[in-house]
């Protein structure tokens, strides 16, 4: 399978069923080339064919790149390779295969156009993030650069991947110091996220929606309100025009993944904000941003805020 130019093919591409990720495909991109700058010792893979070596890298999260040379196969793990060179034609000697996540399971025409990323977590929930960028030098060789960060989500939050952006999501709750105990308005919800080092956000996909739902219903047990009364503020404020939402967080693609009810949103004036509620299923509706507690329907409490928190470098 040819992908044109200096790229041979993208192999071993399959759906990566990581619950915290968008639908991305873990892939190995195979090109002519060799490691250029290394920052550690490679592992020599013995008694193994090249295909088996590539498969080993594909299966092991910590593997970044494998290199086939006349002496065999070398495996480079997280942080051990800084850059690799993909020489221009007619170079046809060594091969490398590096791991990435792609938005489709088909071979891209030119995988060197956009940056890409590969992220994984270990048992301690430390996140290892490899960002791959590309440049072309004066010889028309492609330089593949590997940039590494080691990150951890704050306690009480969970890692998700939005496109190529790792984010930490959490539901933060109002304390009993509110005017109505445990309930507060949209302005205080935004401030609550910022106080925790983040921003108000909303679900970008079904997995995030399920997370916000599960966490909200579990943590609300400390408040004196039933599950049916709980509302969680999410990103979206009709500041100027009714039902035209101003978003704080640019990473969740607006309200594209918001599960609106059949007649929602239905505000006719600006000044309404979006919120999530949970019965009989998780749905999104809008109400006045000044709302904190309503006595109607047995009492409705805007209990907290969906937040995107900053990851911490470790």
UniProtKB/TrEMBL annotation:
Keyword Signal attached: yes
Organism: Caenorhabditis japonica
Signal peptide: 1-20
Pfam families: PAN_3 (PF08277)
Keyword Lipid metabolism set for record: no
Protein name, per record: CW domain-containing protein
Ranges where the PAN-3 domain occurs: 6-143
Keywords attached to this entry: Signal
């Amino acid at each position: 399978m040819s992908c044109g130019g200096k790229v041979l093919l993208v192999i071993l591409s399959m759906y990566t069923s990581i619950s915290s990720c968008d639908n991305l495909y873990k892939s190995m991109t195979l090109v002519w080339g060799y490691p250029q700058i290394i920052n550690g010792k490679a592992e020599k893979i013995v008694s193994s064919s090249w295909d088996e070596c590539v498969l080993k890298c594909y299966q092991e999260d910590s593997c970044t790149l494998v290199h086939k040379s006349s002496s065999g196969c070398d495996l480079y793990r997280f942080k051990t390779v800084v850059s690799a060179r993909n020489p221009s034609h007619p170079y046809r000697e060594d091969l490398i295969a590096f791991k990435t996540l792609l938005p489709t399971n088909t071979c891209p025409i030119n995988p060197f156009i956009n940056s890409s990323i590969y992220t994984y977590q270990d048992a301690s929930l430390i996140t290892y993030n490899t960002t791959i960028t590309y440049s072309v030098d004066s010889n028309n060789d492609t330089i593949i650069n590997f940039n590494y960060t080691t990150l951890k989500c704050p306690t009480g939050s969970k890692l998700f991947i939005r496109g190529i952006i790792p984010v930490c999501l959490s539901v933060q709750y109002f304390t009993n110091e509110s005017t109505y105990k445990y309930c507060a308005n949209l302005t205080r919800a935004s401030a609550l996220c910022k106080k925790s080092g983040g921003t108000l956000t909303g679900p970008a996909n079904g997995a995030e929606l399920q997370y916000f739902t599960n966490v909200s219903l579990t943590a609300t047990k400390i408040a004196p309100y039933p599950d049916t009364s709980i509302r969680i503020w999410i990103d979206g404020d009709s500041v100027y025009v009714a039902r035209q939402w101003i978003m704080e967080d640019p990473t969740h693609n607006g309200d594209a993944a918001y599960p609106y009810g059949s007649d929602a949103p239905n505000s006719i004036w600006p000044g309404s904000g979006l919120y999530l509620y949970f019965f009989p299923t998780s749905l999104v509706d809008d109400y006045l941003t000044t709302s904190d507690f309503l006595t109607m329907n047995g009492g409705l409490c805007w209990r907290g805020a969906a937040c995107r928190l900053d990851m911490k470098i470790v």
